[in-house]
Amino acid sequence: MNTPEGPPPERLRTLPSRLTNGAALIANRIVDQALAQAGARRYHYALLATVEEYGPASQAALGRRTGIDRSDVVAAVNDLAAQGLLERAPDPDDRRRNIITITPAGRKRLADLDRLLAAAQDAYLAPLSPADRRTLTDLLTRLVEHHA
Amino acid sequence: MNTPEGPPPERLRTLPSRLTNGAALIANRIVDQALAQAGARRYHYALLATVEEYGPASQAALGRRTGIDRSDVVAAVNDLAAQGLLERAPDPDDRRRNIITITPAGRKRLADLDRLLAAAQDAYLAPLSPADRRTLTDLLTRLVEHHA
DNA sequence: AGCCAATGTTGGCCTAACCAACGATAGCGC
DNA sequence: GCGCTATCGTTGGTTAGGCCAACATTGGCT
C-alpha cells in the first residue's frame, strides 16, 4: 500500500480551474484509449463527424467548425485520406480549396468511433446520475459559450 | 478570433468529454495568464501552496501530493529555488532526500499568487451563480475522486 | 488593373504529462 | 554482516495538443 501520504492541499483540491483540468485529463485519457482501439485520435473523430453532419466542406471551413487550427486539419486529413476515410478533391469553383468528402468506409469508421466514444463517455461519467450528467453538461456548456 | 460559419456538429457540441476539455482550455488560459503576471506557472503555485500548507517535505512527497511527476518537480523546484522562494537542503536523516522549505519571500509570492488566482477563478466562472459554482465544483470533485 | 482576403501547406514553438534509466542511499529479511 | 529491493533525485527523453508565422496560389472587390 504505497498510496500517497496525504491529500493535496485544500487550496489545490477545491480550485475550480484545477478540478476542471483534472476532469479533462481523465476524460481525455479515457477517450484517447477508446479511439485508439480503432486507430484514431480526437481530431480524426471531430473531422469525420463534421463532414458527415454537414456534408463536404473545405479544410478551412472544417477548421472553423471544429476549432481545429488549419495546419492541424491538414495533418489529420492526410491521415484520414491515407486510410480512405475521407477524400480530398480540388474545388473546381475555387481552386484555392480542397473539398473534403467522407467515403463509405469513413461512415463505417465513424459509426465504430461513435460506439466506442459512447462507452467512453459512460465510463467517464460513471459516478454521476443522468440528472447530474445533464447538470454538468449544462454548466460546462454555459462556461464555454460565455468564453467563446 | 475566428469567424465560424456555423456551430460545431451536434455530436461534438454535446460531448461531455469535449465540453470538459474546452472548459479546461479556457480555465488554463485564464489561470496561466494570471500567474504569468507574477512570473509563475501552475506547477510553481502547486508546489508553493503544498509546502506552505504541509510544511517542509521531500521532492518525492511533493510530487505525490500534487500529482506532479518527480522529474517535473525537479525542474519546478529549480526555478523556485533560483528565485529564493523555496530552499533545497539535504536531509541529514536520509541522504537520498532533499528537504524543501518555503522562504519568507516564498510566502509573500504565494500570497500574491493566491490573489491573482482568486481573480482568475472568478473570471473563469463568471457566467455561473454562486450556487452553480458549488454544483460544478461538487460534480467535478466526484468525477476526479471516482477516477483517482 | 490593383489591392486585400482567403486557402492549403510547411515548419516551427511551447507546455503539460508522462516514462525509462541511472547512481546513490536506505531498509529489510536473514 | 550480506544481499535484495525500494526509494530518491536527476537527466533525458517522448507524445500530443494547441498555437502562430509565413508563403504561394487564387479569388473577390472596386
SSE inventory with pairings:
2 copies of one chain form a homodimer.
Chain A: H1 10-13, H2 16-36, H3 42-54, H4 59-66, H5 70-82, E1 86-90, E2 98-102, H6 104-124, H7 130-146
Antiparallel strand pairs in A: 1-2
Helix pairs in contact in A: 2-6, 3-6, 4-5
The structure holds a DNA duplex (30 and 30 nucleotides).
Short overview:
Two copies of one chain form a homodimer. With 148 residues, the first copy, chain A, is mainly alpha-helical.
Task: Provide an overview of this structure.
The structure is a homodimer of 148-residue chains. With 148 residues, chain A is mainly alpha-helical. Chain A has a single domain, classed as Winged helix-like DNA-binding domain superfamily/Winged helix DNA-binding domain (Arc Repressor Mutant, subunit A). Helices cover 66% and strands 7% of the residues of chain A. Chain A has helices at 10-13, 16-36, 42-54, 59-66, 70-82, 104-124, 130-146; strands at residues 86-90, 98-102. The first copy, chain A, has a two-stranded antiparallel sheet. The longest helix of chain A is centred in the first third of the chain and has 21 residues, at 16-36. At the A-B interface, helix 1, helix 2, helix 3, helix 4 and helix 6 of A face helix 1, helix 2, helix 3, helix 4 and helix 6 of B.
Number of strands of chain A: 2
User: Kindly state the mean pLDDT of chain A as a whole number?
Assistant: 92
Q: How many domain modules of chain A?
A: 1
pLDDT < 50 runs, ≥5 residues of chain A: none
What is the oligomer described by this structure?
homodimer
Helix content of chain A: 55-70%
Q: What's the helix-strand series of chain A?
A: HHHHHEEHH
Largest sheet of chain A: 2 strands, antiparallel
Shape of chain A: elongated
Largest interface: A-B, 59 and 61 residues
Radius of gyration of CA atoms of chain A, rounded to a whole number: 19 Å
CATH fold-level label of chain A = Arc Repressor Mutant, subunit A
C-alpha end-to-end distance of chain A: 45 Å
Q: What percent of residues of chain A are in strands? A: 5-15%
Number of helices of chain A: 7
The CATH architecture of chain A can be given as Orthogonal Bundle
Helix/strand class of chain A: mainly alpha
**Could you name the CATH class of chain A?**
Mainly Alpha
